[in-house]
Design brief:
single chain; about 180 residues; mainly alpha; globular; protein phosphatase
């Protein structure tokens, strides 16, 4: 759902966003379409052109995207570990220096593509992006997106509201960053 909502809102800011994609930290739903409750929630809010098949995130995603945004702290931790292994494969001494410490880099699930060979995506909690375009000081210090899968339709509506808020905050953050 976050992918569809962000893509819809980002279309109003084409100069800020290149490519948008989404992936999970596990492969258990690989190639599955979105949950029907996700699709009905999106349609109720006017997003009718979303077509996506689930996939697992890869190390190449960390080299391709500028930002990778996690929905919750568990996924954030998984993504930070993968990011650290990508950084470590480029510079083993850098990995050793950062071992056991939280990364101060940020981002999660989607973003603009970057071709810089030394650049690695920022990994951050999606909820770290605040409505005013600011970002939470602590990586992972923001609000988590709750998984609505085991609940009713109302949970999907709540998640929709969250991802709209976070998408607007992230876009505001990118606008401020582009201005500076």
């Amino acid at each position: 759902m976050a992918h569809a909502v962000f893509r819809d809102l980002a279309a109003q800011h084409p100069s800020l966003i290149g490519e948008i994609d989404s992936a999970g930290t596990g492969a258990y739903h690989a190639l599955d379409p979105p949950d029907p409750r996700t699709m009905s929630t999106l349609r109720r809010h006017g997003i009718t052109d979303f077509d996506h098949a689930a996939r697992k995130i890869t190390k190449d995603d960390f080299r391709h995207f500028d930002y990778i945004l996690a929905m919750d702290k568990y996924n954030l931790s998984d993504l930070q570990r993968v990011r650290d292994s990508v950084v470590g494969s480029k510079n083993p001494s850098a990995a050793a220096r950062s071992a056991g410490m939280k990364t101060t880099r940020a981002s999660a699930a989607g973003g603009g593509g970057g071709a810089d060979g030394d650049k690695v995506a920022e990994v951050r909690l999606f909820g770290d992006f605040l409505p005013n375009g600011e970002v939470h000081q602590k990586v992972g210090g923001g609000e988590e997106v709750q998984d609505p899968y085991y609940g009713g339709q109302n949970g999907f509506e709540e998640v929709y509201g969250q991802v709209v808020r976070f998408s607007k905050g992230f876009l505001g953050y990118l606008e401020k960053k582009a201005e500076s």
